């Protein structure tokens, strides 16, 4: 093989290595975000009913009627 082809292949290999490193970083960040989303969903499931209760009482004191409940998170 000519030196030019070897240089091009080496360049491609270096760029591929950089891409792989970046993918590893993105994957780790996605896993962290997924854990965070699960935490938020679990927390919301726990506090949804108490929040609805407080919200409804405040709206009742303010004279509002037929208000919407807090939505469930669709999974």
Order of helices and strands: H
| Helix-residue proportion | over 70%
- Which structural class fits the helix and strand makeup? mainly alpha
Tally of alpha and pi helices: 1
Distance between the termini: 55 Å
Question: How is the main sheet built?
Answer: none
Radius of gyration: 26 Å
Q: In percent, how much strand structure appears in the residues?
A: under 5%
Averaging pLDDT over every residue, what do you get? 90
What are the salient characteristics of this protein?
75 residues, mainly alpha, 1 helix
Give an overview of the whole structure:
This protein has 75 residues and is an all-alpha fold. The protein has one helix at 3-61. It is rod-shaped, with a radius of gyration of 26 Å. The mean pLDDT is 90.
Short description:
The protein is an all-alpha fold and 75 residues long.
SSE order and pairing:
Elements: H1 3-61
């Amino acid at each position: 093989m000519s030196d030019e082809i070897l240089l091009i292949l080496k360049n491609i290999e270096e760029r591929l290595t950089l891409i792989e490193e970046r993918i590893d970083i993105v994957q780790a960040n996605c896993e962290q975000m997924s854990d965070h989303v699960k935490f938020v969903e679990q927390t919301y499931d726990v506090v949804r009913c108490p929040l609805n209760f407080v919200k409804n009482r405040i709206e009742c004191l303010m004279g509002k009627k037929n208000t919407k409940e807090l939505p469930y998170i669709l999974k």
